[in-house]
User: Fold this.
Amino acid sequence: MGIAIANCFSTEIISADSRQFFAEMAIGTAVPSPEELAAAPHHFIQNRSIFDPYSVGDFERDALKKLDELFQLHPVVVMVGGSGLYVDAVVNGLDAFPKVDPAIRAKLNTELEKEGLKKLKEELQLADPTYYAKADVQNPHRVIRALEIVRQTGNPFSSYLNKGGETRNFNTLYIGLSAERKLVYDRINQRVDQMIARGLVEEAKSLYKHKDLNALQTVGYKELFQHFDGTVSLETAISEIKKNTRRFAKRQGTWFRKNEQIHWFEYDTAPSEICDFIKRKNANPM
Assistant:
């Protein structure tokens, strides 16, 4: 759909998928095919290495610079991707968090390794019940990020959220595609099977020695790394990839449904219908 819309406006695509940036992860992140990439100019696809740290703030900076260039050539640019935080950073700006002493982060990582996630979750629940109630607290990176702010400042992590609100020199129109959950889950299962057939196991094996890198803390790789560790069978690892991807899709849906600016269309809506909608909105912005 993104390609169809880009073609409709003879424009280019900014990818806001936070894992498709990385060149070494082509299969596990389901990057667009060579044919898709050729159908419309894409930016931020496999443009980084997993060995180069790349934050959401880096993406915000780079994407805004690229948008300034593209808006010199096109009145409309398409941004596509499922990483909600990265989309929000470009559209609204990042939340303003204070700097954290690296020693605090190191101590939290040591505690995670020695004492496990449960104790850190309990600390976060006491310190910031608001954030705890809505965060993915099974993700240790999210828990540690929140706690490092708490320990650095003495204030809840949630008190620094929603402080973006940057003024941009462009207007944003959100288009969302919806489908029945069963269809989404069936597609996810098929997608994982296709990845395995394309060589995901071999790709993950080639990255196994770098498994502690942040870029690889990702569904599709973590489960196979457990298999290489000898803790689960390959069959179980593949089943876990499907299950964890479904969970991720559910969280992703929750994130985007909170955005009241999104105009939702059924996934099989004709691209021409959505293009016409965009043209009307572009001619009569709210």
The domain at 102-160 is CATH 1.10.20.140 (Histone, subunit A). The beta strands are 13-15, 42-43, 78-80, 174-178, 262-266.
